[in-house]
Design a protein that fits this description.
This protein is of the alpha/beta class and about 260 residues long. Helices cover about 50% and strands about 10% of the residues. It has 2 domains: about 120 residues, no CATH class; about 110 residues, Rossmann fold, CATH 3.40.50.1860. It is built from 13 helices and 8 strands. About 5% of the residues have low confidence.
């Protein structure tokens, strides 16, 4: 069952719930503020449900189905009733949109609610372009060369590829230079990097090399978790490349230190 989101007149603001995500909340709150700024510029009325919790990926990916189901119910209860749920993360967005219907689909009470919330859930940049019709952003003074890493879940489960590139291309003075193997995993993979640290480390080493080879001053992505992993390796390998969430650049919020920067840098 697929629920169709309410239709709006051009004058009516969409009532959007922002799913902040744990990683943004704990490690990069600026991304949440950037998301609000972008959504409001697109004409949305943004709310942040105070009862939201983790999307449940750690439990789900570790095989703890019971815990994942319990968390999914909490998220569905918090976000049911909004026109749209917007997530500044392809990974968390995919958990809700793709995996919640599988977790709760057989439950006669929670199944329909899970399908409804899932059908209204979008990754931030794809929501701006595909739903709100945003095709450019304001010139906020960001210039230079950047490269873009395609996170696995956003790319393969949410269909995010051209949307961020489209908006970045609209910024005067900003040059986007694609890296080799942009679609290859950075090695984070949630609990994967804990279970298989050697494999994960080699994957992010290769990713850092391909980023550095572009000559870009900044690497962007749609998931803070990927960026934390990449930023750490870039720093350890001595590469002077900043890591930022794409929303920060699109919203003109690049006055804060890049991801992974030590205090005082």
């Amino acid at each position: 069952m697929v629920d169709t989101p309410p239709q709006h007149s051009p004058e009516a603001p969409r009532r959007v719930a922002l799913f902040v995500t744990c990683v943004v909340d704990f490690f990069r709150p600026t991304v949440g503020f950037a998301a609000v700024r972008l959504l409001e510029r697109a004409g949305c009325k943004v709310e942040v449900p105070p009862t939201q919790v983790c999307c449940g990926q750690p439990a789900y990916n570790s095989g703890d189905r019971a815990a994942a189901i319990a968390v999914a119910k909490d998220v569905v209860a918090a976000f049911d009733g909004y026109d749209h749920v917007v997530v500044p993360s392809g990974s968390c967005g995919a958990m809700i949109r793709v995996h919640y219907p599988k977790l709760l689909g057989d439950d006669p009470d929670w199944g329909p609610r899970a399908h409804r919330v899932a059908s209204r859930t979008h990754e931030l940049v794809s929501f701006l372009t595909d739903v709100c019709g945003v095709d450019s952003v304001a010139d906020l003074g960001t210039a230079g060369t950047v490269t873009y890493h395609d996170g696995c879940s956003g790319l393969r489960e949410m269909g995010i590829k051209q949307q961020p590139r489209k908006l970045l291309a609209s910024i005067p003075g900003l040059e986007l230079k694609d890296m080799l193997d942009a679609e290859v995993c950075c090695g984070f993979g949630g609990t994967f990097c804990v279970k298989y640290p050697d494999i994960s480390g080699e994957m992010v080493r290769k990713k850092a090399e391909t980023i550095a080879q572009t000559g870009a001053a900044m690497v962007l992505a749609g998931d803070v978790s990927c960026l934390l992993n990449i930023a750490g390796k870039l720093s350890r390998e001595g590469h002077k490349v900043e890591a930022r969430h794409v929303a920060e650049v699109l919203a003109g919020m690049t006055d804060v230190p890049p991801i992974g920067a030590a205090k005082g840098e």
